[in-house]
Amino acid sequence: MGRAPVLPPSMSASLSHDLLARLEPLKSLGEDALRRLATKASTLALAPRSPLRSGDVHRWHLYLLEGELSLIEPGRSPVHIEAGALRARQPLFRAGDTRARVVASHPCRLLKLERELVDVLRQQDATSRYDIVDLRISPAEGRLFRQIYDAYGRGELVVPCMPVVVRQVQALAGSQAPDIDRLARLIQADPSLTAGLLRAARGLPDHDQHPMDDLDAAMARIGHDAVPDLACRLAGQHVFEPVTPELGARMLTLWRSSFVTALLSRILAGHTRHVDPERALLAGLVVHVGAIAILDHVNRHVVDHDADELDAAIGDLEIMVGELVLSSWGLGGELAATLDESSAWLRDHRGDADICDVVLLARRLELEMTGRDARLPPIATLPALARLQAESDVDDLPHRVLEEGEREVAKTTALLQA
User: Fold this and answer.
1) What is the DSSP letter of 55?
2) Nearest-angstrom CA–CA distance, 229 and 167
3) pLDDT per residue as tens, the chain (418 positions)
4) Full-model pTM
5) What CA–CA distance (Å, rounded) separates 278 from 213?
6) CA angle 143-147-151, nearest 5°?
């Protein structure tokens, strides 16, 4: 593979947007956005043996353009990265990780892109796509999407909590000595509650404003004494109250699929060398947030529908609505990209297994567990399985993950039924 182009040492208005178009998470941006981003790019020189800590550069996406370095993350084996390699097309540091560092083994030059500008351009690009969305959906779906998009613009896009989770969280949080580990397991069963805790942690005065996507870290930042009361208040803000048994059954299926996919994603990531299990848990948990938000909107506004129309609307709109939800929560980037490809069953790519491989296989295993996998490609044919299996020490990875998953689901189910 050829070496990546090297930027001049200062701001470069002449930087080719073709280079940026090969980087993650910029690949989805249009040419105008890439050209604008190119004019704001700068570079950073890193001398041999010089360390660079992620907490010191959290405002930036950094990419290796020239040289070689080692990425060191707590609890993980160091990763050697060379300019021009596939890994060099991804940001050096994961969003929210303040403990990682890189150490140059040769003189290096890094590309710097401001995270906030990237997020703004991605959102603007997404909005422009939504302007023409009615070309490929029905008029009724177009109206439904516009209503949801308007709610997003007003800051009123809602993903509700499930009543069974709310009851148990409030009961546990209200006890004299709440069990934080049990409370965390309950919170991790609900996308809205998890997002609420993450947002609360990001909003604390001593937080440095980079995204946080690890629930354990968020709870530690908030303080374990304060978490029960906060969780109790969040749980009562938006509770799903179905107006028909049909909508209640649909929501229950989506919610259960979400938390089972999340548990399987964390287990799968634990068998890989390159995917963080806690981030995989979050990616699995939010995989149905678009569909959940659509159902809640239909339920709260008593939107006329029949079963087939609702199935079609969810199929056509859930990814776009999911991206809006993630944006409203201050999440996105890798999570949004994973959401976009989480049902592309034959998705293939070069290089190491990534978080989308993990979530995609977890979704497929969850569908097999519940018998909803008719007409889907067999698990053994998925490129994601081949890539994950190659990184695992387990001979039959799907069988092992299903066994472990059933135990984890049973633990959470027992808490919810207590």
Assistant:
1) G
2) 14
3) 333 333 333 334 345 667 788 888 787 677 777 888 888 888 889 999 888 988 888 888 999 999 999 999 887 778 889 988 888 888 998 776 678 899 998 899 999 988 878 877 776 666 555 554 444 677 788 888 888 988 888 888 889 999 999 999 988 887 888 889 999 999 999 999 999 999 888 777 654 444 567 788 888 888 888 999 999 889 888 999 999 999 999 999 999 999 999 999 999 999 988 888 999 999 999 999 999 999 999 999 877 777 888 888 898 889 889 988 988 888 877 788 888 888 889 998 888 889 999 999 999 999 999 888 778 899 999 999 999 999 888 889 999 999 999 999 999 999 888 7
4) 0.70
5) 8
6) 165
| Cα Rg of the chain, angstroms | 22
Inter-residue contact 369 to 402 (CB < 8 Å): yes
CB-based contacts of 114-121 (< 8 A; 24+ apart in sequence): 114/40, 114/59, 114/60, 114/61, 115/58, 115/59, 115/60, 115/61, 115/210, 116/59, 117/37, 117/40, 118/25, 118/26, 118/37, 118/61, 119/332, 119/333, 121/29, 121/33, 121/36, 121/37
**93: containing domain:** 17-114
The amino acid at 21: A
Please name which of 338, 340, 352 lies closest in space to residue 284, comparing C-alpha atoms.
Answer: 338
Residue 250, CB half-sphere, CA atoms under 13 Å: how many? 22
Record the tokens describing residue 20, joined without a space: 């940026």
Same domain membership, residue 107 and residue 55: yes
Contact predicate 158/325, CB 8 Å: no
Among 45, 59, 50, 47, residue whose Cα is nearest residue 91: 59
Q: Are residues 361 and 243 in the same domain?
A: yes
Q: How many domains does the chain have?
A: 3
CATH number at residue 268: 1.10.3210
Place of tokens 């908030």: 222
Residue 215 identity (one-letter amino acid):
L
Residue 231 and residue 244 in one domain: no
Does residue 100 sit in the same domain as residue 213? no
Distance CA 191, CA 325 (A): 11
Final residue before a domain boundary, out of 207, 235, 263: 235
Does one domain contain both 297 and 265?
yes
Last residue of a domain, one of 235, 258, 283: 235
Between CA 245 and CA 251 the distance in angstroms is 10
